[in-house]
Amino acid sequence: MIRYLLVFAALGLLFWAIWSLKNEFLSKKLKGVLSLFLLLFLAFAYFYQSSFDDKSEKNMQILNAFKQGKVIKCGDFNVTNDRFNYEFGTACFVAKRNISELNGVIIEISKCKYD
């Protein structure tokens, strides 16, 4: 909550700074264009971040279920922690070496779902 308050205060200060400049330095039209671009950029950043947060939350739910030994559906495969390992660097499930029928299978976590 405090983070949002600080962000809105900083944005208000930025808009105030733009609009308090003298008209000889920046015309009202240019101030409006700058404000519009700033608002569009902020809207894009907000929606991008909310989309990223949703994906991260989904991935954490899948990973928690995987750690608990539950079955995760990933395309044609049923992923469990006794047959797959999770690689954090690539965010993928990699088949264990001792499972010969799954040799070389790598599945991205984004292609998985858990209900």
UniProtKB/TrEMBL annotation:
<feature type="transmembrane region" description="Helical">
    <location>
        <begin position="30"/>
        <end position="48"/>
    </location>
</feature>
<keyword id="KW-0472">Membrane</keyword>
<protein>
    <recommendedName>
        <fullName>Integral membrane protein</fullName>
    </recommendedName>
</protein>
<keyword id="KW-1133">Transmembrane helix</keyword>
<keyword id="KW-0812">Transmembrane</keyword>
